[in-house]
């Protein structure tokens, strides 16, 4: 907890460390009521930072009880060093020395889940970003890289498995029922990549032969009851290892790679060297208990953490402002992997929908920051959609500009040049430039300027000269601390369609011949015109194909033009995008009608467009499912000037009902065909099967809106007899959101009884109910929080109940009496003391107060003020609340 006003840390103040740590030797003695940590650090002055006199040594440390300290074997007494709540400082008398300390810490009462803590019966760690300082006094900054040797001692019976980074080198037993194991990590690493695990764990074992023929042991450790849920993660791991060799030329480096699943974890997973620690929700998956989406999430997170071994661990960040160096790049890499494993177009659609809904909202709110932030109070608050998702888009644009081959040359040079170093985003871009000769200086504004650029496009056609011009105007709204922005480099991938649905060859003024029908132009000025010659008729432009830049594109398409693009665009992403834009236009009309108190009437063109999609048996079923999904409420809120959540909900539900009614026959036909296949085929976690179930399930959710008895019967049949969670959960969710009260309660009770002992399945049961827009949302949430399976100390439970309510249940959360806001603020105040990172994350919906009407704005601000005044705030919560109110 904070006792003084928190300090703002600025990128411009970065200074190289005064001292380095060459070797770190740690011994942990784990007990039930305390843990002793002995550290022996071989240190030396950092020459790069040398001035004449030896500077003082300042080590980070928090919540540590110092038991002993010695310098080169000489015990230090009280007058030899200073301690405050964040550090220990002393004056070394030689340029290299050995510092030894023993501290006592309390993992058994650590509810913040940062540093060393207990999850259930096991010990585990989470050190990124600045958690290692809660383990021992250290230079806890990523530009200090050391080799680590770690010995863990614990009771043999309770903790038969003792793990740390690197390779196991020795182990043994002692007479008193305790045992020990020593691990050695030869690769120098920053302390944030340190990990330790001790517990009664079982493991699934496999092996991988690397491209140079080395044998690597692969192990996934879980609590015994989960041993049958590891195969999917293991398969994903092997596929990731092969993919990184084939696509990036990156080989694994240690003799063993381990994953450990823990139930209490603040985020998805952590890439600790050789010992990844995962939230159990990001590793455990089998047909009966995890949905298709969960299977795909496991595959992506396993890949993401594995890929960090190069993009993050071998080459790490100089300071935390460079976080996107590893995160943006690694998200880009895992997206490439997922696209190759599943449908690339569907993966892109999902990523873009997510970015536009959530990252664009962040970029327009009080916490907006550049991909490389200039300052922060609490770094934990900067593991954001901007750093991760927009950061990945920035890397993707570099690839679009350099081409795949150029990009690979750049990444090869980056890994080779910086192996073993802690570097910056500038170093990354420099490697891309040096490998290809490209000039990315203006492009780098994507790292330093926050906000989502708007790209307005207008057209002009002159039939007499057969010239077609597109004029691009870019602008970027002000964001906190950045009033004015300079023009970005915006790569726009485009094509031109003729009236026969064909693509016109593209030849710009000044070019000798046409260059393809699909190409990338770079918009670099505030206003810029591109003229195409040899354009025999007025074309219809297909712009920003594949979402080639993270911008808000604005082109005045008519509804008929959008329908034309839905049918003829050669770019699958843009066919989907045309459908989304058409839906947005229709939904906006309904929202207006609703607000004016008129009867809502859905433009039949949308229904007939969706009808043709449904009738097209040649289309990938996953694409059909995506095309049938209307833009979500959160996205409709994001694109509103002032969001009217009730009108948005009413309009979207009305449109869904009209679609269900008009397209009942084709939906029913496709539902039954796919359900029949599901009945006949055992579950497989593979992309065609995901696609088939996705279409089946969206069809079911439409069909249930008809409230017909035969649909309810089909839904119950699916719920009761499905062999997998994807079908079972959807069936339950549509019943929960239906008026069939008795059936709904019966399904919820059956489900809870069957899965009461599986916490991850119960999380799904919780979130389906907490996220339901049916009336009485808040009472339901209170009720759920009294359920035996709920605990406020487990982040997955908090996300499943409180998070689902505040982030997905818009009509209930935004209730006009302010009850939803008051509830959320109460939870945040309580969690602030228990787990500041989780408390701070929960604030997100309240930070968006500017989106709503005056009455709701006042209520939301009132709750933020109440949090601010509630007592001693963690730096995490303080930063978000104070910036939101500024
Ligand atoms: N690097 C971790 C995130 C750590 C978050 C610390 N608050 C997971 C990941 O991005 O792979
Ligand atoms: Zn990551």
Helix and strand arrangement:
Blueprint: E1 9-10, E2 19-30, E3 35-45, E4 57-60, E5 65-71, E6 74-75, E7 81-83, E8 87-90, E9 96-105, E10 115-119, E11 122-126, E12 146-155, E13 161-164, E14 167-173, E15 178-189, E16 196-199, E17 202-209, E18 215-222, H1 231-248, E19 256-262, E20 269-270, E21 275-279, H2 292-307, E22 316-317, H3 323-341, H4 344-363, E23 375-376, H5 385-418, E24 422-423, H6 425-436, H7 445-448, E25 454-462, E26 467-475, E27 490-497, E28 519-523, E29 527-532, E30 540-542, E31 552-554, H8 559-568, H9 572-595, H10 604-615, H11 621-628, H12 633-638, H13 645-662, H14 664-680, H15 687-703, H16 709-721, H17 725-736, H18 741-755, H19 759-770, H20 777-785, H21 795-808, H22 810-813, H23 819-834, H24 836-842, H25 844-847, H26 854-868, H27 875-885
Parallel strand pairs: 2-12, 18-19, 19-21, 22-24, 25-31
Antiparallel strand pairs: 1-23, 2-3, 3-9, 4-8, 5-6, 5-9, 7-8, 10-11, 12-15, 13-16, 14-15, 17-18, 20-21, 25-26, 26-29, 27-28, 27-30
Helix pairs in contact: 1-2, 2-3, 3-4, 3-5, 4-5, 4-9, 5-6, 8-9, 9-13, 11-15, 14-15, 15-17, 16-17, 17-19, 18-19, 19-21, 23-24, 23-26, 24-27, 26-27
The structure holds (3S)-3,7-diaminoheptanoic acid (B3K) and zinc ion.
Zinc ion is lined by residues 304, 308, 327, 330.
């Amino acid at each position: 907890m904070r006792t003084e006003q928190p300090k703002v840390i600025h990128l411009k103040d970065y200074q190289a460390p005064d001292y380095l740590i060459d070797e770190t030797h740690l011994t942990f003695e784990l007990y039930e009521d305390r843990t002793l940590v002995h550290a022996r650090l071989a240190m030396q002055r950092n020459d790069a930072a040398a001035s004449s006199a030896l500077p003082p040594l300042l080590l980070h440390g928090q919540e540590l009880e110092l038991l002993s300290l010695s310098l080169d074997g000489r015990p230090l007494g009280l007058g030899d060093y200073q301690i405050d709540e964040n550090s220990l400082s002393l004056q070394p008398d030689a340029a290299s020395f050995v510092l030894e300390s023993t501290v006592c810490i309390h993992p058994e009462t650590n509810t913040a889940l940062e540093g060393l803590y207990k999850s259930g019966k096991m010990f585990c760690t989470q050190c990124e970003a600045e958690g290692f300082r809660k383990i021992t006094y250290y230079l806890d900054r990523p530009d200090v890289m050391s080799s680590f040797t770690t010995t863990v001692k614990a009771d043999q019976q309770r903790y038969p498995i003792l793990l740390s980074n690197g390779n196991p080198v020795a182990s043994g037993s002692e007479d008193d029922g305790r045992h020990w194991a020593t691990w050695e990590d030869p690769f120098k690493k920053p302390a944030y990549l340190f990990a330790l695990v001790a517990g009664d764990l079982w493991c699934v074992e496999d092996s991988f032969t690397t491209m140079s023929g080395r044998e690597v042991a692969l192990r996934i450790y879980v609590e015994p009851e989960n041993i049958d849920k590891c195969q999917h993660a293991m398969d994903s791991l092997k596929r990731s290892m092969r993919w990184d060799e084939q696509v990036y030329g990156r080989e694994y480096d240690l003799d063993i790679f381990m994953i450990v699943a823990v139930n209490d974890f603040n985020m998805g997973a952590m890439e600790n060297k050789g010992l990844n620690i995962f939230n159990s929700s990001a590793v455990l998956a089998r047909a009966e208990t995890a949905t298709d989406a969960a299977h795909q999430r496991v595959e992506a997170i396993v890949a993401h953490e594995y890929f960090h071994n190069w993009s993050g661990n071998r080459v790490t960040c100089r300071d935390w402002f460079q976080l996107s160096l590893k995160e943006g790049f690694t998200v880009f890499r895992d997206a490439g992997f997922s696209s190759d494993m599943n449908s690339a177009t569907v993966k892109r659609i999902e990523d873009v929908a997510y970015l536009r809904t959530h990252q664009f909202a962040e970029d327009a709110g009080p916490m907006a920051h550049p991909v490389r932030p200039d300052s922060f109070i609490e770094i934990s608050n900067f593991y954001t959609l901007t750093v991760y998702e927009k950061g990945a888009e920035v890397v993707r644009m570099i690839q679009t500009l350099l081409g795949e081959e150029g990009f690979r040359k750049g990444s090869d040079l980056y890994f080779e040049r910086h192996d073993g170093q802690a570097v910056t985003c500038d170093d990354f871009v420099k490697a891309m430039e040096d490998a290809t000769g490209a000039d990315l200086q203006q492009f780098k504004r994507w790292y330093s300027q926050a906000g989502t650029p708007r790209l307005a496009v207008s057209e002009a056609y002159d039939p007499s000269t057969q010239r077609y011009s597109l004029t691009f105007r870019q602008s970027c709204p002000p964001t906190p601390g950045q009033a004015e922005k300079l023009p970005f480099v915006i790569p726009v991938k485009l094509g031109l369609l003729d009236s026969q649905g064909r693509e016109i060859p593209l030849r710009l003024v000044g070019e000798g011949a046409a260059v393809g029908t699909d190409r990338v132009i770079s918009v670099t000025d505030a206003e810029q015109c591109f003229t195409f010659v040899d354009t025999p008729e007025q074309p219809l432009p297909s712009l920003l194909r594949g979402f080639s830049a993270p911008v808000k594109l604005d082109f005045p398409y008519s509804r008929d033009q959008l329908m034309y693009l839905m049918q003829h665009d050669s770019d699958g992403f843009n066919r989907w995008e045309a459908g989304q834009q058409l839906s947005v236009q229709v939904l906006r009309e309904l929202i207006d009608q609703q607000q004016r108190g008129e009867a809502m009437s859905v433009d039949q063109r949308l229904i007939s467009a969706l009808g043709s999609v449904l009738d097209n048996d040649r289309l990938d079923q996953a694409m059909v499912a995506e095309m049938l999904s209307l833009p979500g409420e959160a996205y409709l809120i994001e694109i509103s000037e002032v969001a009217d959540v009730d009108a948005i909900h009413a309009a979207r539900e009305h449109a869904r009902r009209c679609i269900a009614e008009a397209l009942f026959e084709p939906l029913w036909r496709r539902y039954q065909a796919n359900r029949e296949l599901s009945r006949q085929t055992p579950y497989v976690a593979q992309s065609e099967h995901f696609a088939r179930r996705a279409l089946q399930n969206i069809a079911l959710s439409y069909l249930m809106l008809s409230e017909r008895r035969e649909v309810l019967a089909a839904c119950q049949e699916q719920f009761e007899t499905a062999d997998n969670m994807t079908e079972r959960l959807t069936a339950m969710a549509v019943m929960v959101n239906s008026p069939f009260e008795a059936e709904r309660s019966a399904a919820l009770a059956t489900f809870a009884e069957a899965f009461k002992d599986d916490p991850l399945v119960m999380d799904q049961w919780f979130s389906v109910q907490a996220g339901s827009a049916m009336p009485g949302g808040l009472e339901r949430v209170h009720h759920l929080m009294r359920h035996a399976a709920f605990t406020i100390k487990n982040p997955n439970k908090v996300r499943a109940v409180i998070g689902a309510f505040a982030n997905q249940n818009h009509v209930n959360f935004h209730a006009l009496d302010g009850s939803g806001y008051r509830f959320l603020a109460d939870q945040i105040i309580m969690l602030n003391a228990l787990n500041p990172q989780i408390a701070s994350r929960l604030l997100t919906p309240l930070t968006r107060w500017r989106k709503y009407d005056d009455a709701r704005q006042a209520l939301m601000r009132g709750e933020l003020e109440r949090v601010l005044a509630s007592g001693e705030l963690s730096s995490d919560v303080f930063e978000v609340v104070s910036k939101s109110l500024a």
